[in-house]
Q: What sequence folds into this?
């Protein structure tokens, strides 16, 4: 049981701070301030913390140089700014040079709900997934955030860690770290349809499951901790019981989780009927909070439940 409702950002930064106390080779570079965890890191480890200011592109080049000098480096900022704004720098200075550097993006999907499209991270997975050699992690609760952080300093690699801005309820029991090795875990069993999701949306998927199960449809839920690479053998094993697959994401459908899953299915010769549910090609400038934006995008629990029910009842006459 969690007694303190810590935000994913603070959990991740605190874990890295603890590691940095023991390892003076760890450096944290931020283009943002204002978080208690950042303030504590800076206060306790001022020689291992760099505030880059609002100059994210320069931050990437600085981090690349430090990594080349043998440091274990983290760069941190709001997800759209540390990915889209810095894409060329990331490609040239990190990806093409195969540097083991961790990019931490805060504010997945509509996390910054009242800040408008400039602050929405609804294309970041598409962009980052296109980069060669990257590993993309999407934690869904405190334990997955901690294990993602530990992975970054125990096994340095070129990674993008995508964190939500809000508190995420527990998904795994203490000591359960299957998601680290396998990259995806069936958190609720079913046999008719499974919903594959991650982060904030995995908890919405569990709500959808409750609504749909009441209609007599046996639905499972799969947490996708690692968007890239997806292990084909694990994917085949996890999906084996299911006839149909639904992917659910608070991200544009083009190039997101649904695309990653479908590509992996094709690449590994796995035949399943798939329905992708996510944000279609439209930006929303309306204010009203995250739930309102999800309703506009038709990815709220009610809309998704109806789509899943329709998909479950749909039969093909291909015989």
A:
């Amino acid at each position: 049981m969690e007694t303190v409702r810590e935000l994913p950002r603070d959990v991740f930064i605190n874990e890295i701070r603890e590691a940095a106390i023991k390892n003076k080779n760890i450096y944290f570079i931020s283009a943002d301030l204002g978080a208690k965890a950042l303030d504590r890191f800076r206060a306790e480890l001022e020689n291992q913390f760099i505030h880059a200011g609002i100059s994210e592109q320069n931050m990437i080049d600085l981090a690349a140089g430090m990594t080349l000098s043998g440091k274990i480096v983290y760069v941190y900022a709001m997800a759209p700014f540390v990915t889209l704004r810095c894409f060329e720098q990331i490609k040239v200075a990190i990806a093409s040079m195969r540097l083991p550097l961790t990019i931490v993006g805060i504010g997945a999907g509509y996390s910054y709900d009242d800040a408008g499209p400039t602050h929405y991270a609804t294309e970041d997975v598409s962009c980052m997934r296109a980069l060669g050699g990257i590993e993309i992690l999407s934690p869904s609760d405190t334990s997955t955030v901690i294990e993602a952080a530990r992975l970054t300093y125990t096994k340095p690699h070129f990674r993008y860690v995508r964190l939500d801005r809000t508190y995420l309820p527990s998904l795994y029991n203490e000591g359960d770290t299957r998601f680290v090795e396998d990259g995806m875990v069936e958190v609720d069993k079913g046999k008719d349809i499974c919903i594959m999701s991650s982060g904030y949306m995995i908890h919405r998927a569990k709500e959808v499951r409750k609504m749909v199960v009441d209609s007599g449809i046996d639905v499972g839920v799969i947490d996708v901790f690692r968007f890239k690479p997806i292990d084909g053998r694990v994917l085949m094993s996890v999906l084996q019981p299911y006839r149909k697959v639904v992917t659910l994401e608070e991200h544009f459908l083009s190039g997101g989780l649904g695309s990653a899953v479908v590509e992996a299915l094709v690449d590994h010769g796995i035949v399943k009927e798939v329905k992708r549910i996510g944000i279609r090609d439209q930006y929303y400038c309306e204010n009203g909070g995250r739930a309102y934006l999800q309703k506009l995008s038709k990815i709220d629990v009610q809309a998704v439940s109806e789509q899943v029910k329709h998909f479950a009842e749909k039969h093909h006459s291909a015989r």
The radius of gyration is 19 Å. The chain has two domains: 8-163, 178-313. The longest strand covers residues 244-252.
